[in-house]
């Protein structure tokens, strides 16, 4: 019952909208500074490889696959990373602030914060994951007061045409079968 209220109620949507805008600003601002200020991730990535997260007693790496990924993919492609991180942060923030493709922005925000945590940067990342989870679990109600109110019906309409589901599905009474009409 509480989740139904959270995902459908207009007052819950208003509360989540305020949280969403705050979270969006927390993404947009650093993304903008990185886009306009000359961002270079090579120092961060090198540090993540040199001092990876390890168990204090055994010294064993906690996330060896992620360290391998950074060393063998991210560092050799640091020019791509230098574009993707600032652009991603900015677009996540913009999507959350205007309420456009809110669930996608929330999902990628959570994912990016998780990647930062796996690299060993704590900072505000745990809080941003929690706040992102609050926005993400609200579902489409998170974008009710935003562009999603207009975008999602359009996307649904075109998706239905693309998948040939623009015909009505009607359940035949008593049989349990669904028939396209």
From TrEMBL:
The chain crosses the membrane at residues 83-108, 115-136. GO terms for cellular component: membrane. It is found in: Membrane. This is Thiosulfate dehydrogenase [quinone] large subunit. The lineage of its organism: Bacteria, Bacillati, Bacillota, Bacilli, Bacillales. Keywords: Membrane, Transmembrane, Transmembrane helix. It comes from Paenibacillus cellulosilyticus. InterPro entries: DoxX. It is a multi-pass membrane protein.
